[in-house]
Amino acid sequence: VPNFCYQSTKGDVLLHDLFGKENWGVIFANPASFDAVCLSEMMELVRLHSQFISRRTEICAMTCDSLQELEEWVKDIEGMGVQRPPNFPIIEDPRCEIAHVLGLVENKEEAMTGGPSARQAVRAVFIINPHKRIAAIMRYPPRIGLNFHEVLRVLDALQLPEHVEEALAPVNWIRGQDVMLDVKNTSPDELHERFPEGLQIIDTPSEKFYLALTPD
């Protein structure tokens, strides 16, 4: 991901410095400030911020709005129930430059000149790994709010190989449940040697070897 340097509600932001050398990062791209769905997301993100910190993950948000608009919007985020301001930066992008680079608006010039409604970017989440590469992208229509539990689930799944290199996250997996194993280029005997405790190799009707589980 490019090393953006922009103003935010927490001062100037250099994206790679914000995320740090060893941390993961998440960019939450909002269609606009003073938007009901976006407000609900920011309030929930304030509540869940510690969940990301516990996962070695720094977060930031952005909209195609000016810093002045964002600072006014922060008052709503703080005052509508959470009773504290966001402890993460919300980045201004009034010229839609970041949104254009991230593929959130098709035509930057049209977005800049078409009024506030045209500047609304796609609602999206970008999960950035410690190598500063985009590991996952989640996109939602502007009318539908994010599912933060799914964002955390995907983040947990992406971090699995840090503990078990061969780990795969099966359908509806959540942290603490058994994980599947990538068994390509290995044998059952090699797996038993690699995972002496808790390994389950599952027989299939096809008699093909490709299903194995181990505790998270």
CATH superfamily of the largest domain: Glutaredoxin
Helix content class:
25-40%
Query: How many domains is the backbone divided into?
Result: 2
- Structural class, by secondary structure, is alpha+beta
Overall strand count:
11
For the record, the CATH architecture of the largest domain stands as: 3-Layer(aba) Sandwich
Q: Largest sheet, order of strands side by side?
A: 5-4-3-6-7
* Strand proportion: 15-25%
- Judging from the principal axes of the Cα atoms, what is the shape? elongated
Mean pLDDT: 89
The main β sheet shows up as: 5 strands, mixed
CATH topology-level name of the largest domain: Glutaredoxin
Number of helices: 7
Radius of gyration: 20 Å
Q: Outline the low-pLDDT stretches.
A: none
GO molecular function, one term: thioredoxin peroxidase activity
GO biological process, one term: response to oxidative stress
Pfam families: AhpC-TSA (PF00578)
Keywords: Antioxidant, Oxidoreductase, Peroxidase, Redox-active center
Polypeptide structure, described:
With 216 residues, this protein is of the alpha+beta class. The protein has two domains: 5-161, Glutaredoxin; 167-215, Antioxidant, Horf6, Chain A, domain2 (Antioxidant, Horf6, Chain A, domain 2). It has seven helices and eleven strands. The protein has helices at 15-19, 36-53, 67-82, 97-101, 108-113, 148-159, 188-194; strands at 5-8, 11-14, 24-29, 57-63, 90-92, 123-128, 134-140, 167-168, 179-181, 200-201, 212-214. The strands form three sheets. It has a five-stranded mixed beta sheet with strand order 5-4-3-6-7, with helices on one face. It has a four-stranded antiparallel beta sheet with strand order 8-9-11-10, with no helix packed on it. Strands 1-2 form a two-stranded antiparallel sheet. Helix 2 (36-53) packs across helix 3 (67-82). The radius of gyration is 20 Å and the shape is elongated. This is Thioredoxin domain-containing protein. GO terms for molecular function: thioredoxin peroxidase activity. Residues 1-160 form the Thioredoxin domain.
